[in-house]
């Protein structure tokens, strides 16, 4: 596991489980590119088949993204392409959205712009504030990420050019995670 946050909860959990952990302080590098180069050099040294960005709130340089193309996933707390970037829950409430949720997508150099693999819908309830909506989305985000990574790890989901395929067939729309935490 690699992180830019030494005190992240996931870092502590991974260490407790005996998982290899390396942390990097971005402020110790002269530029974003220098940070990405150092981080991804260490990541690639582990020869991962899949790289999952979860809670990673940094833009990744085009060079790093291109080197990992088709192996780099991100989870984002919105129904992409809606509400890219930060403060997605506040944006959804301000826009009067009736539905919000989360998306897993392949990472490209464009902010939250890569091909969307899967999504989970969470209703925006009357009286929701950012915290209430965020908590409901986060619970579903976790299930979405696990279910999606399982399909990728099984070799069923792939990126071919800019097209997501499932079992070799083009995925016309993102997979939708059901209430049972399964894809139809």
List the helices and strands and how they pair.
Layout: E1 2-3, H1 9-16, E2 22-23, H2 32-45, E3 51-53, H3 62-67, E4 72-76, H4 88-94, E5 99-106, E6 116-123, H5 130-153, E7 157-160, E8 163-166, E9 169-170, E10 175-176
Parallel strand pairs: 1-2, 3-4, 6-10
Antiparallel strand pairs: 4-5, 5-6, 7-8, 8-9
Structure notes:
This protein has helices at 9-16, 32-45, 62-67, 88-94, 130-153; strands at residues 2-3, 22-23, 51-53, 72-76, 99-106, 116-123, 157-160, 163-166, 169-170, 175-176. The chain contains five helices and ten strands, in the order βαβαβαβαββαββββ. The chain is globular and about 45 Å long. The longest helix has 24 residues, at 130-153. It is α/β, with parallel strands linked by helices and 184 residues long. It starts with a strand and ends in an 8-residue tail after the last strand. It has two domains: 1-47, no CATH class; 50-176, Rossmann fold (3-Layer(aba) Sandwich). The strands form three sheets. A five-stranded mixed sheet has the order 3-4-5-6-10, covered by helices on one side.
Measured by DSSP, the beta-strand proportion falls in 15-25%
Rounded mean pLDDT score: 95
- Overall, the morphology is globular
Per CATH, which architecture of the largest domain?
3-Layer(aba) Sandwich
Order of helices and strands: EHEHEHEHEEHEEEE
CATH superfamily of the largest domain: Formyl transferase, N-terminal domain
The end-to-end span amounts to 31 Å
């Amino acid at each position: 596991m690699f992180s830019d946050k030494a005190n992240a909860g996931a870092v502590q959990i991974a260490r407790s489980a005996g998982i290899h952990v390396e942390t990097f302080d971005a402020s110790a590098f002269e530029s974003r590119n220098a940070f990405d180069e150092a981080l991804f050099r260490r990541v690639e040294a582990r020869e991962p088949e899949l790289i999952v960005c979860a809670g990673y709130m940094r833009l990744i340089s085009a060079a790093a993204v291109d080197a990992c193309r088709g192996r780099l996933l991100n989870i984002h707390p919105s129904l992409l392409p809606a509400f890219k970037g930060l403060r997605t829950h506040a944006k959804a409430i301000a826009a009067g959205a009736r539905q919000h949720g989360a998306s897993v997508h392949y990472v490209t150099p464009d902010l939250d712009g890569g091909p969307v693999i899967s999504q989970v819908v969470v209703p925006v309830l009357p009286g929701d504030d950012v915290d209430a909506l965020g908590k409901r989305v986060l619970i579903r985000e976790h299930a979405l990420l696990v279910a999606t990574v399982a399909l990728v790890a099984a070799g069923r989901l792939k990126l071919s050019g800019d097209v997501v395929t499932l079992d070799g067939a083009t995925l016309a729309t993102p997979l939708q995670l059901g209430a049972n935490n399964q894809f139809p």
